[in-house]
Amino acid sequence: MTVFSIATVLSFLLTITSSEDISNGWGSQYSWVNSLEAAKSQAISEQKPLMLIIHKSWCGACKKLKALFSTDQEILDLSKNFVMVNLGDENEPSDPLYKPDGGYIPRILFFHPDGSFLPSMINKDGNPKYKYYHFSTESVAASMEEVLDLAETWEKKTKDEL
Fold first, then answer.
1. What is the per-residue pLDDT across 35-48, written as a single tens digit (0 to 9) for each?
2. DSSP string, 48-111
3. Burial class (CB in 10 A: 0-12, 13-18, 19+), 93
4. What is the DSSP-derived secondary structure letter of residue 102?
5. Strand-pair partners of 117
6. What pairs with residue 55 in β-bridges?
7. Cβ(106)–Cβ(143) under 8 Å?
């Protein structure tokens, strides 16, 4: 191999390893944020609610929802109004706040732009023992719409207080 060939191969390998796919298979067309801390900061600065998906790479239910989620146009359209972050495997947050009714997966949690958890934003059609477990894109979209409806009241309070 020539020096040029080796340099080309090394450059290609560095590009592959440095361009980490933070979508984790949930859809590269979404505007994912790479960490919970960065997402919290962005939510504050953009005054958008935060949507957190907690999942595991080996989880069958996660894989099924991920496949549906990654191609869902309604969720993609709604996501433009959220700061989106998905954390799996070793990146799962350990604070009990992120396990409000257990450590099952997948869990989808919503937060006010100020960082406060929105415990009432649950899968209304799901099992009451696993309130934040979603198995369909319809339930995810319904929760996202409910958060956006609630967000309108936040904006009114802010405007009224001025």
1. 999 999 999 999 99
2. --EEEEEE-TT-HHHHHHHHHHTT-HHHHHHHTTSEEEEEEGGGS--SGGG-BTBS-SSEEEEE
3. middle
4. B
5. 111
6. 88
7. no
Q: Whole-model pTM?
A: 0.84
Positive or negative, the CA dihedral 103, 99, 39, 160 is positive
Q: pLDDT tens for residues 11-30?
A: 444 333 335 789 999 999 99
Count the neighbouring beta carbons within 10 Å of the beta carbon of residue 9.
11
Q: Chain centroid to CA 149: how far?
A: 19
Residue 41: alpha-carbon gap to chain centroid: 15
- Residues 6 or more apart whose Cβ sits within 8 Å of residue 39: 33, 50, 52, 83, 84, 85
Classify residue 100 as left (phi > 0), alpha (psi -120 to 50) or beta. Answer: alpha
Q: Tokens standing for 83?
A: 């700061």
The one-letter amino acid code at 159 reads K
List of residues 6+ apart from 119 with CB closer than 8 A: 100
Are 54 and 103 spatial neighbours (Cβ–Cβ below 8 Å)? no
* Residues 26 and 66 sit within 8 Å (Cβ to Cβ): yes
| Residue located via tokens 């799962």 | 92
